[in-house]
Amino acid sequence: MLRIMILAAILLTSIGAQASNFGIGISIEGSDNHVYIPYMLNDDWILEGSFYYSKRTYDYDEFLTRFEEREFGIGLLRKHTLKEKSFSYYGLRASYVKSSRSTFLDFASFGLMLVVDFREGSFASADGYSLEHTFGIAYEVTDNFSIAAEVAWKYMDLESKQTSLGEAILTPLQDSNSTETRLALRYFF
Prior knowledge:
By secondary structure, this protein is mainly β. The chain has one helix spanning 2-17, and strands spanning 23-28, 35-40, 45-60, 63-83, 86-106, 119-140, 145-164, 167-169, 174-188. Strands 1-2-3-4-5-6-7-9 form an eight-stranded antiparallel barrel.
């Protein structure tokens, strides 16, 4: 799946570099912001690459937890003109998702008599894909700039691996369904 996403991103970049209907965009949805690379195939279709990255660290005295997540995707969206400056769109986005979590426990913080500062931890990683059915309504503020409200139903299927204190733990496949809303800003060159 990752190889397909990388190939699609290369194709999207090479197409966009040769055309004037190539753009850049961002989504605003709390702390989960995506970067978009839209390309207008014609008046009715948009091919759009996306990227998301997040890294968070939480430090609570004897516990240290790190989260990291990456998502690379490609989407095909169909446009439908509503009025002169507004349009709706719908389509499907497919993404490769990779996430990891590391948690460390500092036994020295518990006042144990240890010769050295001893840290143990658990590690979890997951990768897989997500499919997102998207519907949006956009308003063209100028000829090159649009603002859109989107709603999406997202299905995610991840395979995870986990270790705790050096021992491997078998974990089942993780799948989830969720809805997402976002505000998207796009600029076309």
